[in-house]
Automatic annotation (TrEMBL):
Taxonomy, superkingdom: Bacteria
GO molecular function ontology, one term from the record: catalytic activity, acting on RNA
Role: Responsible for synthesis of pseudouridine from uracil.
One biological process term in Gene Ontology: enzyme-directed rRNA pseudouridine synthesis
InterPro entries (alphabetical): PsdUridine_synth_cat_dom_sf, PsdUridine_synth_RluA-like_CS, PsdUridine_synth_RluC/D, PsdUridine_synth_RsuA/RluA, RluA_PseudoU_synthase
Protein's name according to its UniProt entry: Pseudouridine synthase
Similarity-based family: Belongs to the pseudouridine synthase RluA family.
Keyword Isomerase assigned: yes
EC number: 5.4.99.-
Active site: 75
Domain Pseudouridine synthase RsuA/RluA-like per the UniProt entry, residue ranges: 23-183
Sections of the chain in a coiled coil: none
Length: 243
């Protein structure tokens, strides 16, 4: 697809996928933090949105105002499509779709090792890791988490074996895809939080980022009431996954 325009964010540029009177859909680069906080250094997506959308007439206690219209999140090192609502009604309309699991999300990933199954599903609850509060882990006492995986191809790069996946998360838990893949010993390539150190060292010469990309998302438009699909082109580092 051809991107409509670029928005400068810190030392990166956001590619605008789609824009109308109530929606702004962008392709977030890897390395850009979505939400600002006291611990985050550098410009975030949220701060950039504040320069583009007028929130002065919004309720300062509303979730719309506090999140500056950003409907959902992506991890810092994950690239891809992200939705921003330009008004509170649209924000609430989209939030309801996410909460009721009516939003279709498709990711692409490169993971360590060879996966032979063409299609498989992981249904494993997730909760915050008690040993490391930065991480999440599979636990019977966690919240339900379901992810469907489709093997695109196996790739031998150098002396290392990788697998390219299409991924459809059915739920939206924090780090869900990363945790589920780590649990089956096929962590996302370059995932410094969940991949074994020896794997990270082996793949360092093959890839320079975490290989997870939010590729597509489909929603019911808040004003036109029709299903719309938005796609963030695969970054160049994902070219090895082309069939």
């Amino acid at each position: 697809m051809v991107y409509k325009r670029l928005i400068k964010v810190h030392n990166s540029r956001l590619k605008v996928i789609y824009e109308d009177e109530c929606l702004l859909i962008v392709d977030k680069p890897e390395g850009v933090v979505v939400n600002k906080s006291l611990t985050v250094k550098g410009t975030t997506l949220q701060e950039s949105i504040e320069q583009l959308i007028d929130f002065t007439n919004s309720d300062s206690d509303s979730e719309y105002y506090l999140r500056k219209g950003i409907v959902h999140r992506l991890d810092k090192e994950t690239s891809g499509v992200i939705l921003i609502a330009k008004d509170e009604d649209s924000f609430n309309f989209l939030q309801k779709q996410f909460k009721s699991r009516e939003v279709y999300k498709e990711y692409r990933a490169v993971v360590y090792g060879k996966i032979d199954e063409k299609v498989f599903e992981i249904n494993a609850p997730i909760k915050r890791d008690i040993k490391n509060r930065m991480k999440y882990s599979v636990s019977d006492s966690g919240k339900d988490a379901i992810t469907t995986f489709y093997t695109i191809k196996n790739v031998n790069k150098g002396n290392n074996m990788y697998t390219c996946l299409k991924i459809e998360p059915k739920t939206g838990r924090t780090h869900q895809i990363r945790v589920h893949l780590s649990a089956i010993h096929h962590a996302v390539v370059g995932d410094v939080l969940y991949a074994p150190k020896k794997h990270l060292e082996l793949s360092a010469t093959d890839f320079n980022r975490m290989m997870l990309h939010a590729h597509k998302i489909s929603i019911l438009h808040p004003k036109e009431y029709k299903i719309m699909e938005f796609t963030a082109n695969l970054p160049d580092t994902f070219q090895i996954c082309h069939i």
